[in-house]
Specification:
about 425 residues; TIM Barrel; 3-stranded antiparallel β-sheet; 14 helices; about 15% strand; binds flavin mononucleotide
Length: about 425
């Protein structure tokens, strides 16, 4: 076991454009049986945790609810509480927004999940703060983008104070937190939970986001999923830890990645191309183009050339998702690619977006995953399957045993809490605030 160990997590698919809904094997993204299937598979594969993303407003496209959001999804912590009853060891991670929640309420709900799951709760702190989402929570305004990490950092600090305000096995103490964002005091209602401090995950990429992760998070969920970008991100974020008196191993870096397996590498490549064609249907190709252009392009032929008009940089055609920073530059790049290779709109979108991260035979994928971790491009992966709910089955059956043979992945759970799966130290009780 001297090799650096890989950490694995399972992202429940749905709502993103990775999921292939047209596949006859696709199931519901609402039924509990789908959550249960994926969670049980992840636990069978000895994964560290199961992960739920969350958005707080249905996205809109040209004034209509985005197709993928029509079906909706249940609230994350509620789902995880139910999964706690059908799993034993698997960590349970909920994405919860720090902009539109309150520390007391969230600390209570996460401590409750940690109790019900016997020490498996995690919180993915996200900071989306756009005015469109804010309309669902309006109290006379929403948070300015510049202030969201200030609020998130103070939010996490306040939640930790609440968790620490009750001594292990002891009666409620009191807490008092006073800062620019929150002025709260009282007694915390939930006894100290098995982990004491449930695991904190951070997803966000700006300099402020990375600094926040270095100061406060146990895990970073990142989009940097190529070897080169991964190594750069890894060195950058780990390099920030010393400032906070933390060791490199105190923070695990886990990119979200997709994968396609096949009987051989060539078979996997062929499958991957087929999946890309399903993910980018003719209709989705136009939607993807409209997201960049910010214009109604419904009159364009997906099999024809790209529009020669420029994007509208100030467009509000698409609401509730982050638009690319410089749409005019992206459009120029796509046009150049299409002209150089003679690609249609659909082919250009297929080439330019969402290519699968790991494609190959199980042996090829296992070797590539291990290389990533061994060379410090990551500490592990949040796997994003493209099928609900069976998308992880082949990975657990075919890749996990190879990682185990290589000595890079556990052959049994050695602890019971998520902190122990992640190799994180048990938190020392710091005592309540007066
Ligand atoms: C890998 C990844 C996953 C994310 N998942 C969610 C999510 O499920 N829900 C959400 O509201 N925001 C999510 N976000 C958005 C972040 O919380 C944040 O608002 C966004 O990345 C902008 O912050 P930044 O400028 O620091 O990157 C995610 C971001 C990243 C990088």
């Amino acid at each position: 076991m001297s090799r650096k160990q890989i950490h694995l997590a399972a992202h429940f698919p749905g709502v993103n454009s990775t999921t292939v809904w047209a596949d006859p094997r696709s199931g519901s993204q609402i039924d509990f049986s789908s959550f249960e299937h994926l969670a049980r598979t992840a636990e069978r594969g000895l994964f560290d945790f199961f992960f739920l993303a969350e958005g707080l407003r249905l996205r809109e496209h040209a004034g209509r609810i985005h197709d993928l959001d029509v079906v909706g999804r249940p609230e994350s912590i509620t789902v995880l509480n139910a999964l706690a009853a059908v799993t034993d060891r698997l960590g349970l991670a909920a994405t919860v927004n720090a902009t539109f929640n309150e520390p007391y309420e969230l600390a209570r709900r996460l401590a409750s999940l940690d109790h019900l799951s016997a020490g498996r709760a995690a919180w993915n702190v996200v900071t989306s703060s756009d005015a469109f989402t804010g309309e669902n929570f309006r109290r006379g305004g929403y948070l300015d983008r510049a202030d969201r990490y200030a609020r998130a950092a103070e939010f996490v600090g306040a939640v930790r104070e609440l968790w620490d305000s009750r001594p292990p096995g002891g009666a409620p103490g009191t807490f008092a937190h006073s800062g620019p964002q929150f002025r709260i005091e009282g007694s915390f209602p939930v006894p100290r939970s098995p982990q004491g401090q449930p695991v904190v995950i951070q997803a966000g990429d700006s300099a402020e986001g990375r600094e926040f992760a270095a100061s406060a998070a146990d895990v970073v969920f990142t989009r940097h999923s190529t070897l080169e970008a991964g190594r750069e991100f890894y060195a950058d974020v780990k390099g920030r830890l010393a400032r906070y008196g933390r060791e490199p191993d105190d923070l695990k870096i886990m990119p979200g990645v997709t994968y396609v397996l096949g009987d051989s590498d060539a078979d996997a490549q062929e499958r991957a191309a087929g999946i890309r064609r399903q993910q980018v249907s003719p209709q989705n190709a136009i939607l993807a183009l409209e997201q960049v252009w910010g214009r109604d392009l419904s009159g364009y032929d997906p099999d024809g050339p790209l529009p020669d008009i420029d994007p509208d940089p100030d467009s509000t055609l698409v609401q509730g998702r982050v638009r690319v920073a410089d749409p005019v530059a992206v459009a120029r790049k796509w046009r150049a690619l299409s002209e150089a290779k003679g690609l249609s709109i659909r082919q250009t979108v297929i080439e330019s977006t969402g290519r699968q991260s790991f494609v190959g035979s199980p042996a090829t994928v296992a070797a590539a995953l291990e290389e990533f971790v061994a060379t410090d491009a990551a500490d592990g992966f949040i796997l994003v399957p493209h099928l609900t709910p069976g998308g992880l089955d082949d990975f657990v059956d075919q890749v996990v045993p190879l990682l185990q043979e290589r000595g890079a992945f556990r052959t049994e759970y050695t602890g019971t809490t998520l902190r122990s799966h992640l190799g994180l130290p048990d938190p020392v009780w710091k005592g309540g605030t007066p």
